[in-house]
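Friendly challenge for the regulars: who can give me the structure tokens for this chain first? No prize, just bragging rights.
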Amino acid sequence: MSISTKLSHFVELCAPIEVRNEQDLIILANLVRKLLKRETTLEKEFPDYIYTKDNWGT
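First reply, four minutes later:
Bragging rights claimed.
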């Protein structure tokens, strides 16, 4: 889900990424930017990753 205001975007993202430092945050921000611009998809970025409802709560 993405919500826009005049100054920002609020995005909910479920992806196999760990953010541990500033460089990781930059990588995540660039990924989100590409997703919002429809330049890529989660399937392209993480082709072998599977997360379904069965994984919720585990």
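The mean pLDDT is 87. Helices lie at 22-36, 42-45. Your move, everyone else.
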